[in-house]
User: Fold these one by one.
Assistant:
Number 1:
Amino acid sequence: MYRDVVIVGAGHAGAELASTLRRKGFGGSILLVGDEPVAPYERPPLSKACLLGTIEIERILLRESDYWSTAAIELALGCAATALDAEKDGLQLSDGRHVDFAWCVLATGGKVRKLNCPGSDLAGIYYLRTLRDVQAIGAAIGEARRLVVIGGGFIGLEVAAAARQLGKEVALIETQRRVLARVTSPVVSSFYEALHRQRGVRLLLGSAISGLEGEGQVSGVRLADGTVEPADLVVVGIGIDADTGLAEQAGLACDAGILVDEACRTSQPRILAIGDCSRHPNDFAGGLWRLESVQHANDSAGAAADTILGNPGIYREVPTFWSDQYECRLQTAGLTKDADEIVVRGDAGQVPFSVVYLQEGRVVAVDAINAPKDFMAARHLVRSGARPDRKLLADPSIALKSLA
Ligand code: FAD
């Protein structure tokens, strides 16, 4: 069979690409292949409302169920792409079909990193990436009294917050000396550490794990100092790796992600890559970046659509991200990596407040906590490379947008 566009991966990026192509008038055939057995859905609620059990599955679907047929987007769900021939423009599917294509877009996302210490194969240890994962956690969490979360990144902290809201005893283990160490400044980490401690989470920072204990079922997490943290349930959130299996097999250039240019083209220009699986040149941070966010999934899909429609442009969007924990929403614009100075707007111990990151006086990122107006303005400041006066910046009574 032949399709004009075949998209591998029916997550945020794949679904957004298919619908953007239609919205922009693409009339060719589109096949969206996804190995999960469900229509495209949002992942962010998995570690929030889905874990709390306060949202129905229908409400996290990315499109209404009749959208796909109405838009003439063919779905192959519960079906994996198993081999990609980059020379002959062909894709093999697990249901036995072979698809020739004009364009193939890889939107394969990421695979969770797994523990490989002794005991990591015990029952009661969960990872959180898919709807199936959250359903499994949901089925087990009711009986559990003590939950141990491994990893103090966004997913781990969101799971800890939800588990506390469900009344569980929660301990969170992080190897770094602070939570969110990879993505934010110590001042924001401290705020989240205090928030979680106030809500009753036991934070074990700077703690390495030497193994998991139990007879068939996990009963505790052993730390490097020999102490054992009792657990009825363990949720692990130690990051993902880009899913590059298909791309590597096809001989496409990969290096901790599928390498793409500014128009989402891989080393084979009729094959594109978007979303979490791709590593792209990022103007705002310099160098190649692999971003894990809904914004990047959606905006890179938009750039790929332009490439397919014959108007390849330059993907240049300010990276944004959000995280909800308890009643606090963190919204980030830009990337904090190269900042050499930070300015706090407000009292860093109390919401709302924002942290502005500067590099040689230029705004490169803003973390806004319960401060949506600062976040909105932040995108403009980062995009324009604004150099505001530090005193005005530090004054929360002065609107950030007036400094753009
Ligand atoms: P994915 O959404 O992972 O989709 C990839 C799909 O491809 C998957 O369904 C996968 O199974 C499928 N696939 C892979 N290989 C094949 C194959 N060979 N054949 C067929 N199908 C294949 N981002 C935010 O900005 N804010 C948040 O608050 C936030 N919270 C999150 C909470 C959780 C629990 C998780 C897991 C992620 C969260 N993210 C959040 C990140 C965000 O969801 C991801 O960045 C986004 O989903 C990436 O979209 P994607 O399409 O690139 O990958």
Number 2:
Amino acid sequence: MSPSSLKNRRVILAVTGGVAVYKAAELVRRFKSEGADVTVVMTGASQRFVSPLTFESLSGNKVHTDVFSEPMAHINLPASADILVIAPATANMIGKLAAGVADDMVSLVFLAFDGPVVFAPAMNWRMYAHPAVRRNIRTLRSMGLHEVEPEEGELACGEHGVGRMAGIGRIIEAAKGCLRGKDLSGLNVLVTAGPTREYIDPVRFISNRSSGKMGYALASAALRRGADVTLISGPVGIDPPPGAKVVRVERSEEMLDAVERHIEGADILVMAAAVADFIPDEYSAVKMQKQDSLVLRLRPAPDIVKAVSGSRKRPRLVVGFSAETGPEIAKARRKLDEKGMDFVVFNDVTAEGAGFDSDTNKISIIDREGITDYPLMSKDACADVVFDRCLELSKPGTRAAENC
Ligand code: PMT
């Protein structure tokens, strides 16, 4: 990602009332160091945690707190802003925004702004899990707002759970991602995500630890960047990004079938799904009864990416992921050729903060020119790196561009 994508951008930072307000001060500093011009708007509750003077000193701009003392500020400010970042976003503010209530500076600015909006919830874990909050967040996401999900850890109340405001780096990355523009518009992107389940009998299956987060981050990034996205998903417990055409499958053979049905017209295929390598040779139509021992015979599952990359329907770019249990780049490099991919994204699923289920990943991109290593990043940022590489490979004169 270009480090300068925030340079000279006008950021409205909306601060709402929770303990995490103190972190918003650091957020202002980071936006400024990236070259952005930051204007802070605050709710009354947030001012009880940190004074507007702190934000005024850090941003170098007037802080807006009162609708009535500046009647037109909620219209004028958004008119010249590039992005609105709401951090921390309380349960109360999330509810107001979802309902379209506008009774303070932050909610008024929100309604008067028609650009990209990033929000970073921060609250007690039970509040974050409450069905009312879940519903309101779904509503905001369906309106196109980008949620930077809270993290798990010790909360201000002393309890442990998911509710801590996302790290400053993740919020900055999300803002940069939203300002990137529609550089994938006109492209059809097919993404696979999640695990497959290979059934032994009607109640038992072989599967793996994939949560779908990496594939869903890829689908979100492609949508945000203007692509038409089809997401073929194994069984996962997360919501698909609004705007994606979602095809749900369970078994690897169903995933192959879905990919084959949707590959026509796709420009880019990204296989982030953790597809089974083996499937039970026999399926028992009734639940198998307990016995002293059981030997399962497995046969190879269909290799989806290999089948597609060798077919006449091959998209211009075929990207795979390689999940290894150690720094075994050589294995990923071999898969690049064996499976006919344009590049492969290596991740060591045993590395801290990488691989299955985490919100972050540490990837290396391997293509025929070499290997590029990336630091530990959010899966959203990894997704942007993958599509940046796709765009580089699509430039005239590159091998993938010649496949057109
Ligand atoms: O879902 P998360 O919890 O966020 O975790 C993300 C992830 C670790 C699952 C993801 O980053 C990842 O590495 N996905 C690929 C996992 C995998 O199947 O790796 P592999 O090295 O076994 O396969 C290489 C490539 O072949 C992959 O693109 C895979 O989708 C594809 N494949 C594998 C088997 C098969 N039968 N058909 C395939 O197409």
Number 3:
Amino acid sequence: MENKDIYILAIESSCDETAAAVVKNGKEVLSNVISSQIELHTIYGGVVPEIASRKHIEKINQVIEQAMEEAGMRLEELDGIAVTYGPGLVGALLVGVSAAKALAFALNKPLIGVHHIEGHISANYIENGELKPPFLCLVVSGGHSHLVKVNDYGEYEIIGRTRDDAAGEAFDKVARAIGLGYPGGPKIDKISREGNPEAIHFPRAKVGESEYDFSFSGLKSSVLNYINSCQMKQEPVCQADIAASFQKAVIDVLTEHSLQAVREFKMSQFAIAGGVASNAHLRETLREGCKKLGVEFYHPSPVYCTDNAAMIGVAAYYEYCKGNFHGYDLNAVPNLKLGERI
Ligand code: KG4
Ligand code: ZN
């Protein structure tokens, strides 16, 4: 097997993106097709699960066909079929899982179920050839905020997690409160550049037990209270200042926890992943922090930070090499734990 190139078709449908990609040897992305439903959900201010599932059904075959075409390959030439089987919206996950099972069965190829967060972490291998475990990874997305020790391929230790809202969720809720719309992260990222991050002091939450846990719901409430009090006093609300001050509060906490963990676990490499990892200010702050500690800093390009199937194909490659395949009884597991295989 050593000398043979491995081609994996990967499918991702855990939330509001229908995506398929072909990845060669766990690194080279031959195609990466993403059909986003963002516009559909915008009018509701967030993802509507029923609509997401229906749209995935409409798009899935088209997206897979396009991924194969762009890779210039025929289905028979593939070595395996990978799919996100959790965590995520159950109806949405089921669409991808069913498509992957049907393909694997019809083609008689190995089926590999992948954890969505493992995919996000693995996105870092695409453009950073030198990155290998062990390293520390901050995973910040719309549904998750985890500080993870990647001990080896497929071996994860969660050392910190959010107690309430995920970082991306906080971005989305605050953006909605100040009238920026959905999805909030990129909009806050952009408007913050025109605001003063010191204008308003929002709290940096400390949570008990694990020093690496996060909590963002208090910060979100504090932003809402601030807006209410301005409205009561009939004072103008400056969107850019609120956005910049809120963003700074989130980034301060993410950075402080991450760098503290880098020191405690004596890690020489640190990576970020997930939708929020495309935030320009977060990247800059972490880059500087790592530089001061003499630690290598890695991040995926924005297209590999937000949901995509290429990252699933990368994670699946390492399972393929270990011969870890799933049976045709693979099911969607909406609350799948990182490192758990069902
Ligand atoms: O990883 P992802 O695409 O989906 C999940 O697995 O949840 O992350 C989406 C999240 C959304 O909450 C979005 O607002 C946030 O990532 N996001 C950002 C940025 N781009 C996307 N947050 C802050 N700054 C950004 N530039
Ligand atoms: Zn994601």
